[in-house]
Amino acid sequence: MSAPTGKPGRRPTIKEVAAAAGVSTAAVSQAFNDKGRLAETTRRRILDTAVELGWSPSASAAALRSARTRTLALVVRRPTDVLGADPHFSELITGIEGELAPRGYGLLLHLVAGAQEENALYKRLVAEGRVDGAVLTDARADDPRPALLARLGLPAVLLGPPDRSASVPRVGLRHQGAAVEEVVRHLVGLGHRRIAYVAGPADLQHTRLRGGVFETALKEAGLRPYAVLHTDFTEVSAVAATRALLDTADRATAIVYANDSMAMCGVGAARRAGLRIPEDLSVVGHDNLPLGRWLHPRLTTVDQQVQRVGAAAARLLLARCGEDVEETVLEDRPRLVVRESTGPAPA
Amino acid sequence: MSAPTGKPGRRPTIKEVAAAAGVSTAAVSQAFNDKGRLAETTRRRILDTAVELGWSPSASAAALRSARTRTLALVVRRPTDVLGADPHFSELITGIEGELAPRGYGLLLHLVAGAQEENALYKRLVAEGRVDGAVLTDARADDPRPALLARLGLPAVLLGPPDRSASVPRVGLRHQGAAVEEVVRHLVGLGHRRIAYVAGPADLQHTRLRGGVFETALKEAGLRPYAVLHTDFTEVSAVAATRALLDTADRATAIVYANDSMAMCGVGAARRAGLRIPEDLSVVGHDNLPLGRWLHPRLTTVDQQVQRVGAAAARLLLARCGEDVEETVLEDRPRLVVRESTGPAPA
C-alpha cells in the first residue's frame, strides 16, 4: 500500500451518463443496482452507455453511498487440502450461507497458514472496508484475535462453547464434553474395555477438551484410554491411526473418531483387515454428516449440529452488523446418535 | 442505492494520526497493511492511536490507493443444502483456494436461487467494486452471463469444457464425454447388459452431455440404457433412485452415479438390500473424492480432477486480473479409475 499519488484522471460523471442515455441519474443508479422498475431495454441502454463512456460506480462512490459491504468474512487456519478432506467445513459454510444468501450477503472465505497471517488479514480487511463482520473458527487457548478485532472495531463471533467472560461472543453448543461422556458410557455399557480415540490436531481447543473428557469418563468406569492418537484430519492419517490400533493381538474393540470422514475411513480400513463392524469393532464418528446415515452399516456418531451452529453464528453476526435478525439460542447440547456401527464388545 | 447526499462529517486525517503516534504517514499505512518492517510495539501504538482518534483508512481511500480488491467471486446457483451434500463444491473451493491463499486473495462465495438473482448480484458487485473477477459455475445452454459480464467489464472464467468460440474463457477438461464412454466400455467388457445412470438435475449442461454420451456408447455396444434417473444430487434422492433400480427381478447389474457421494449412498442402499459389491452389483462414481479410496470396497470412479480444474480457473482469472501468474494448460481428459466396486456381471 502506498499513499495516494496525485489525483485520478478525468472521469465521466453520472450526470453525463444519464444525459447520454436520456434518463435521470437515479435511473443510472437503479440500472447498476438492479432496483427500481426500469424496463429491461432501458436498463440495457443505460449499462451500454455507461460502458461506452467508461463510467462505473466506483468503490469510493459506493462507499460514500453505503458503509455496508453485505459481506462477512470466514477465515480458516488450515492447509488448503484439509478444507477438501474435512466435510465439517462444507457443513459449516452451508449453515452460514443458509442465513446469508436470502439476505443478499456473501461470505468472504480466506485460508491462512498461521496466526500472524490471520491477524494481518483482519487488519487489511478493516483498513480496506471489505467486510461488515467476521466469523472466527478454532478457538485457541490465549486467543489474541478477540482483542485485535475489538481494537479494529470489527464485529465478530467466535465458534466455540459459550463463555460469558469472553470479549467476543461465542456461538456453539453447551456441554461439548457431555457427548463424549455419553459416547464412553455407550461403549462401556456394551462391554468395551479397550476404547481408543483418533483425535484432531493437538493444538485445537476442542481436541484438548474432548481428550480430557474422554480420559475422565473412562477413569470413572475404572478404565484408561487404549490410546489417543492425534491426526491432521486427513483420510491418510485416519487410516494409519486405525491400522496402528488394530495391528496387535489385544487390539482396540472400539474407536471414537473426531469426525465422520475419518470414521468412514476407519470402517474401510478395519473391514479391509478382515474385521466386521460392529461384531469385531465398534466405530463412533463426530459431526453427523448426511452420508453416515446411508452407509452400511449406518454410522453411530455425535451430532454436533454444525449447520445449526453455523446458522446461529451468522444470525448473531448479522444482528451485530445492524441487520434486523433475531438471535437463535442454541440450548441443545451435542447428542449421541446410535446407529449400526456400534455393538456389544467381542467376547 | 441512492446518490450521495451531502459531504461526510469532519474526519481526522492520516497526518493527524501520524503526528499523534509520532511516526510518518507511510508508517500508519504500513501498520494497517501489515507491510514494512514496523516493530510490533510501534504497530500497536499506531493502531491504538488511530482507534482513539476515530481514524481508519476508509474503503474510499483504499479504493483510491488501489483498485485491487484481492477478492474473486464464486457464485453458485444451488439450494444451500446441496452445497453441504455435494463434496464436489468443497473440492472445487479447495482447488481455487490453493491458488488464492498464497497470494493473499479471498474467495467471495455467494449462493443464489436463480438466474435473475445471479445477474443482479454481478451488477451490484461491479457497482460497489467488491471483486476483481468472477468464476462462473454450471455452464448452461444459452447462457446470458458471459455477455453480461463483458458489458460490466468484469474479468471472468466459466467452468466447463473448453470452447474457443465462447466470449468468456472456459476452464475444464477436454473430452468430458470420453470418460463416460470409457465407463461404458469397462462395464460392457465385464459382461454387463443392464447398466443404469443416476444423473444430476436435467437442466445442467454436463448432465445432458454425459447422458447423451452414455446412450451413444451403449448403442455402439448394441445396448440401451437400463434407465437414466435424474436427481438433485442429495443423498436421499440417490438412495431412492438406487432402490428403484434394484427393486425388480431383472434389476440393473451396474449403476453409474454422477458423483461419488451419491455412489457411496448407492453402495449402502444396495448392501442393505442384501447385494454384494461388486459380485451382485457394480458401482461407478464421478469426482474421485479422497474418501472413495479408503472405503471397502474402494470406489471405481471418474477422476474429473475437480481440484486441478478449480486451480486452473483461479490461475487464469488471476492472470486476467493482472497478476503475474502463468496459465495452467489442462491437457488431460477425465479418466476412469478402476478400483474394487466394479467386477464381472453376475451370471
From TrEMBL, chains A, B:
It comes from the Bacteria. GO terms for molecular function: DNA binding. The keyword Metal-binding does not apply. Keywords: DNA-binding, Transcription, Transcription regulation. Residues 12-66 form the HTH lacI-type domain. InterPro entries: HTH_LacI (IPR000843), LacI/GalR-like_sensor (IPR046335), Lambda_DNA-bd_dom_sf (IPR010982), Peripla_BP_I (IPR028082). This is DNA-binding LacI/PurR family transcriptional regulator. It comes from Streptomyces demainii.
